[in-house]
């Protein structure tokens, strides 16, 4: 994001993201976001005419955070196989954070997906983009697109399990399962 101190929009997004992620979208009102961001109510509504627009902007920023984090992890790898498995290193680092509360897209979809087609579509687009990314990495590593979709399921399960257990172990467990699947596919 931009320098949040100088940019009211960025301050609102940062405050909304932290509040929504920690407590849920429904539990946080626009006035609370305004207060946390240190902007006037008029300015908040100039930037985001309604809560749905704010939620969509937060999801867009989360998507960028996710893609940047996964890309940084992959950039440290030297082989296609390592690039694919680096996703689990990213997960482990993310799960270790004090503020980890599971996948923001799953959480928001669970709260708003039935009432907001736009929020449901944003969550769906994020998950499909990540699935396609894993499918591409899997093909580069010697597997096929179907295996990439299976590895995406391992990632999703690791996120949910880590949120419930409060540990980083699901990242390593999912990585082990992905390694087993990849080894079987490449041998076969």
From TrEMBL:
InterPro entries: Homeodomain-like_sf, HTH_TetR, Tet_transcr_reg_TetR-rel_C_sf. Residues 29-48 bind DNA. GO terms for molecular function: DNA binding. Keywords: DNA-binding, Transcription, Transcription regulation. It comes from the Bacteria. Residues 6-66 form the HTH tetR-type domain. This is AcrR family transcriptional regulator. It comes from Cellulomonas oligotrophica.
